[in-house]
Amino acid sequence: MRLTEHPVLRFERGREVTIYFEGKPIKAYEGETIATALHAAGIRVLNYSANEKRPRGLFCAIGKCSSCLMVVNGVPNVRTCITLVEDGMVIERQRGKAKLPREAKPPEFRNAKVVKADIVIIGGGPAGLMAAIHAADGGASVVLLDENPMLGGQLVKQTHKFFGKREQFAGVRGVEIARILEGEARKRKNIKIFLETSAVGIFQDGDEKLVLAVKNNRELIEFRGRAVIVATGAMEKMIPFENNDLPGIYGAGAIQTLMNTYGVKPGDRVLIVGAGNVGLILAYQLIQAGVEVKAIVEAMPKVGGYFVHAAKVRRLGVPILTRHTILRAEGKEKVEKAVVAQLDENWRPIPGTERTFEVDVIALAVGLRPSIELLHQAGCQIRYVRELSGHVALRDEWMETTVRGIFVAGDSAGIEEATTAMLEGKIAGIAATLRLGIADESWLKEMEKAQKDLVEFRSGPFGRHVLEGIKKALIGGVASE
After folding, report:
1. I want to staple 381 with a disulfide (CB 3.0 to 4.6 A). Which of 6, 8, 206, 402 is the partner?
2. Among candidate residues 291, 294, 232, the one with its CA nearest the CA of residue 267
3. How many CB atoms lie within 10 A of CB 130?
4. How would DSSP label each residue in 155-202?
5. Alpha helices in 234-379 (DSSP H)
6. What is the C-alpha separation between 371 and 412, in angstroms, rounded?
């Protein structure tokens, strides 16, 4: 199931190691996650639900759901989608609730390591990287942490070329943008980077912001700064249909992670739900990896993504079925079939229009929602804004929330494109240094230029609804209905 050839990507795998899944040796490579290695070995069922004992498999692949929790070296509830393999690692399926082994000793809070900086940035995707680079250039000391084993966020799985201006990476593939931004961040001596580090809370401690985090599931760290930028991205949405929890049903991003980051085929035959840009781009990425795309189903009466993407998919022979939805997935321990049907004008399935596709993967490209949990916990005012795809933190034009010194950027501020995430990250990074009195006033012009570029990028037909959402998300803005 591992890819050896790809028209765009080259996969450089680390040293071969052996992990043990329920007593069976499995070949893996250093630098890949546990879930990836198991998937490459054909193992789809990772755990069983607590109440109904139903099988569960990989879904989001970015550590934001519970579908991949397993027992690793005797420790339960390990997020195997973001935990890297180690030689000799012992892995077992988790069956419902599990207890820590008696010999396990959780780290003590009083022994937490302390790391100080002017600005703490949570999230190493496009927004977080741009915030770190510009805050550092403005003279601030910066700590950048991300719970994943690599920087880049969604960029590391995007093989398509970006639109927009040259200075916004037009014509450059997302995977290459990730490498460029990581290189820029790593060459700045006033940026310290912590990977595999999960932030679990933001607190005020005197004049400092305290971000409590856990590194490698073992070490507690207190990150202290005068400002915090939250760029935690988003998580996949789910839609209701029968058996929507079967292994083999993935968020679109998880499939991109398997294919484009780790070079592992998600399956052989795929049905995609959702014909927005993500679903359309995913279709030809799957074809690039040698996977058959049976169809794309879309509940709306027309395709939601760019015409150029839809045209490319159709030329490759993939049917796009508008006014259709998925009714159910079929299979015992994993997906074997998908049943779809046509919808009437009242969004109800039309009897007699059912079609069955023999597939081993169902890809849900039905949108994302902002990850606002840390912002909510920190006391930032939250509002539901439909145009931004969910609950978001209120902020001003400098991306500062209702809690002084806490800024937000990227998909955690509202679901848009990677280009807007980078521009918001730039604004937040500069704004934080200005608020702290570190950067001089010459940086105001740079921030104003980024704000202008942001308005321009949102001025197209796909950005109009976002602009309405931004108005509602601004402090003092009109609440959504």
Report:
1. 402
2. 291
3. 28
4. GGG--SBB-S-GGGTBT-BHHHHHHHHHHHHHT-TTEEEE-SEEEEEE
5. 252-256, 277-288, 307-315, 373-377
6. 5
Cα(396)–Cα(470) distance, integer angstroms:
10
**H or E segment to which residue 78 belongs:** strand 75-79
- pLDDT digit string, tens, across residues 293-349: 999 999 999 999 989 999 999 999 999 999 999 999 999 999 999 999 999 999 999
SS3 assignment, position 362? strand
The answer to whether residues 325 and 262 touch, using CB atoms and an 8 Å cutoff, is no
* CA 206 – CA 405 distance, rounded (Å): 13
Residue 386 is given by DSSP the state: G
Phi, psi of 262 (to 5 degrees): -110, -5
Residue 52 carries which side chain, given as an amino acid letter? Answer: E
Q: Which residues pair with 42 in a beta bridge?
A: none
Hey, which residues does 322 pair with through a beta bridge?
298
Neighbours of 335 (CB within 10 A): 26
Return the closest-CA partner of residue 423 out of 151, 191, 144, 131.
131
Contacts of 266 (CB under 8 A, 6+ apart): 39, 250, 254, 255, 258, 259, 286, 291, 361, 363
Give the pTM: 0.94
- Mean pLDDT by runs of 10 across the 481 residues of the chain is 89 95 97 97 96 94 94 94 97 90 68 93 98 98 97 92 81 94 97 97 96 92 98 96 97 96 96 96 95 98 92 96 98 97 97 98 97 97 96 97 98 94 97 97 95 89 83 80 47
Enter the tokens of residue 435. 């608020």
**Helix axis angle, 418-435 to 443-457, nearest 10°:** 150
* Distance from C-alpha of 410 to C-alpha of 78, rounded to nearest angstrom: 27
Q: Going from the N-terminus, what domains does the chain have, and what CATH number goes with each?
A: 16-95 (3.10.20.440), 110-235+369-473 (3.50.50.60), 249-366 (3.50.50.60)
Tell me if residue 54 falls in helix, strand or coil: coil
Closest CA to 370 of 419, 418, 409, 427: 409
Report the distance separating Cα 97 and Cα 459, nearest Å: 49
Query: Which pair of tokens denotes residue 252?
Result: 């679109």
What DSSP designation does 277 have?
H
Structure tokens at 373: 């949990």
